[in-house]
Amino acid sequence: MRQVIGGHDALVVVDVQNDFCPGGSLAVADGDAVVPVVNEIAPRFAIVAMTQDWHPAGHISFASTHRADPFTAIDVAYGSQVLWPDHCVQGTAGAEFHPGLRVPHAQAILRKGYQPGIDSYSGFREADRATATGLAGYLRERGTQRVFICGLATDFCVAWTAFDAADAGWPVFVVEDACRGIDLDGSLERTFAEFARRGIQRISASDLE
Ligand code: VGL
Ligand code: ZN
């Protein structure tokens, strides 16, 4: 569905980092395919923020921290936590943005997941669902009226960022061909059902004018 982009539309580019691309420690299939699409759409937005997954070594979301197998889940203080291979460790090459990403006019880079004991898929709210990152305040103060979201991974960080943008009251659009998913135990299908339930619209890059 066509969307005319105006000066009060924000683009949030989620976690386009080396560890989520082929060759990375938590590679999303075809993850680097989002890079040219993000590069193409980003210049149309005046308000652009990028999120960066940014974990300390020994993070609660790392399977190695619990001597458990990756892609299993454990119960932690704030609920169920999927355990991942070590990824996006602060200051490592894997945590850097994909080298092909060309979004020089992005004004805000929001790091998340930096607390040792709390994960944060969402760019807005940590996994305890209580601690705000500040991104909503940033976008609000910039006068954002609609939020467009792209990046990695569709069914985790893109999804939770979209849910929280909708909860904050913004109309939300996920640019699907600028996203790729992990699809762990049906997570992609559940994500699309949640998007429908919450009125989050799925669009493609060619819908943007
Ligand atoms: C992500 C799993 C763990 C994501 C981040 O960016 O979707 N997924 N950390
Ligand atoms: Zn992470």
Topology at a glance:
Blueprint: E1 9-14, H1 34-41, E2 47-53, E3 73-76, E4 79-82, E5 108-112, H2 135-141, E6 146-152, H3 154-167, E7 172-180, H4 187-198, E8 201-203
The site of zinc ion (ZN) has 6 residues, from loops.
Fold and architecture overview:
The chain has a single domain (9-55, 90-207), classed as Isochorismatase-like (Rossmann fold, 3-Layer(aba) Sandwich). It has 4 helices and 8 strands. It has helices at 34-41, 135-141, 154-167, 187-198; strands at 9-14, 47-53, 73-76, 79-82, 108-112, 146-152, 172-180, 201-203. Helix 3 (154-167) runs parallel beside helix 4. The longest helix has 14 residues, at 154-167. The mean pLDDT is 98. The protein binds pyrazine-2-carboxylic acid (VGL) and zinc ion (ZN).
Give descriptors for this structure.
209 residues, alpha/beta, Rossmann fold, six-stranded parallel beta sheet, two-stranded antiparallel ribbon, 4 helices, globular, binds pyrazine-2-carboxylic acid, binds zinc ion
